[in-house]
């Protein structure tokens, strides 16, 4: 999950004081997902026993994109049968700090996850607490053969012994920085953009200091 909400670009009138840097654009994100898909196939000697579970919000469309790429590598793979969505809200250890979190839905492929290789898909890996919650959620719904983790961005600052198996980009950051991911499936025009131009995929870093009220991910 993005470590902070999506932020406007540095040219936006919504908050001109925020310094924003684009570290990955649409082409780089597409290339990273293609590489991750090939790594998944190579590591698991195919993809027919693989299930991709996206963690809302942006992990879900990333899982769909990965499934489409896996299908181009493994002919005959039914993308709809290997993609699911895993809500981890009630498994988080910070609910007492953020009791108003919206509870989402968990949707598994028809074949379930028992005996499968489950690849958790998230946009930004930060403290590792979201993934810990995801592992707890998985233990309540099935028994996969293995659980792996794919993250578009690993920004470091882990608080738990969790390491991704597949990474789009390792991005060294300071705790005062916020990493945000924009995807066309989830994000509309940039805030304050009166032109209504469509969103494009991007990974952004803003220099706005974090606060104690922000959730770790």
In short:
The chain has three helices and eight strands, in the order E-H-E-H-E-E-H-E-E-E-E. The protein has 217 residues and is an alpha/beta fold.
How would you portray this structure in words?
The model is unreliable at 4-16 (pLDDT under 50). A five-stranded parallel sheet has the order 3-2-4-5-6, sandwiched between helices. Strand 4 (117-125), helix 3 and strand 5 form a beta-alpha-beta unit. It has helices at 26-44, 59-73, 129-141, and strands spanning 20-24, 50-54, 83-85, 117-125, 146-154, 166-170, 178-182, 202-206. The protein is built from three helices and eight strands, in the order βαβαββαββββ.
DSSP E strands, number: 8
CATH uppermost class of the domain at 25-172? Alpha Beta
* Share of β-strand residues: 15-25%
| N- and C-termini, Cα separation | 6 Å
Percentage of residues assigned to helices: 10-25%
Q: Which H/E pattern describes the elements?
A: EHEHEEHEEEE
Give me the oligomer status.
single chain
Number of helices: 3
CATH topology of the domain at 25-172: Rossmann fold
């Amino acid at each position: 999950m993005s470590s902070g909400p999506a932020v406007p670009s540095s040219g936006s009138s919504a908050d001109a004081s925020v310094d924003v840097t684009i570290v990955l654009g649409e082409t780089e994100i597409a290339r990273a997902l293609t590489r991750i898909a090939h790594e998944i196939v190579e590591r698991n000697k195919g993809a027919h026993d693989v299930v991709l579970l996206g963690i809302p919000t942006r992990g879900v469309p990333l899982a769909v994109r990965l499934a489409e790429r896996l299908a181009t590598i493994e002919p005959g793979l039914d993308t709809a049968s290997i993609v699911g969505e895993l809500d981890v809200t009630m498994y988080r250890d910070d609910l007492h700090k953020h009791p108003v979190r919206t509870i989402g839905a968990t949707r598994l492929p028809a074949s379930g996850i028992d005996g499968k290789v489950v690849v958790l898909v998230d946009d930004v890996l930060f403290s590792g607490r979201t993934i810990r919650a995801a592992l707890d959620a998985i233990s309540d719904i099935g028994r996969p053969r293995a659980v792996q983790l794919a993250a578009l961005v690993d920004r470091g600052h882990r608080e738990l012994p969790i390491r991704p198996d597949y990474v789009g980009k390792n991005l060294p950051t300071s705790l005062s920085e916020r990493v945000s991911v924009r995807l066309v499936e989830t994000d509309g025009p940039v805030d304050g953009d009166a032109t209504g131009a469509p969103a494009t995929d991007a990974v952004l870093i803003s220099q706005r200091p974090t606060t104690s009220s922000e959730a770790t991910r």
